[in-house]
Amino acid sequence: MLDNAGITNTTTQLQINVILNAFxxxxxxxxxxxxxxxxxxxxxxxxxxxLTIFLFMVGALTKSYGTNSxxxxxxxxxxxxxxxxxxxxxxxxxxxxxxxxxxxxNYSIRANGMGVMQLALNGTALMAVFAFPFALVAIGxxxxxxxxxxxxLEVPFVWWYWVETAGKTLEEIDELLDxxxxxxxxxxxxxxRGEVGRDELSLEKADEEQDxxx
Length: 214
Ligand SMILES: *[C@@H]1O[C@H](CO)[C@@H](O)[C@H](O)[C@H]1NC(C)=O
Hints:
Elements: H1 2-5, H2 10-37, H3 40-65, H4 72-104, H5 110-139, H6 142-161, H7 170-178, H8 188-193, H9 198-213
The structure holds 2-acetamido-2-deoxy-beta-D-glucopyranose.
GO molecular function, one term: carbohydrate:proton symporter activity
InterPro entries: MFS_dom, MFS_sugar_transport-like, MFS_Sugar_Transporters, MFS_trans_sf
Family: Belongs to the major facilitator superfamily. Sugar transporter (TC 2.A.1.1) family.
């Protein structure tokens, strides 16, 4: 990406990459905080919308000020957009990739589902790592536009299909997706609001103890 942006000095590339990774760490920590505060879905929407816009900007700026340009302002702008793009990704996707799938997969398919998810994720990453350098050499800045167009499709997908899971127990999420509650544990929200009292909780426990004795 930096080669295409017009930064070919390897030391400069290394410095930018070190700072970029540190920046992404901070963004993902902030995102980790927000997936509980804002919820999974809004965080994903913010992340995808902004990363799509920034990736289109990377493409446009690479086209205008890439490879053969000497306009340093333009090259800096491209680097800034790469930072904003990667930061937007880290804000949403870095935490969500590991929080959301195990929440929406129900108990019986959780382990296998995570296996399939990791296979798909790493398979796609493998493809991208090998294919993108060739794509960048062959069609340059257009690679970004194709990628960003795909990201744009994810916005309505998340909007329509994602179910908010923040603040719910796995049993409550199960009920949300299945329509059936497979557990007798009281809902967390009800306990917090005081609708299910300690008495009720301890009564259930007392009943169980009584049953055991009998
Ligand atoms: C870089 O490009 C912009 C937009 O075309 C222009 O305003 C600016 O003067 C250029 N800077 C240099 C150093 O050529």
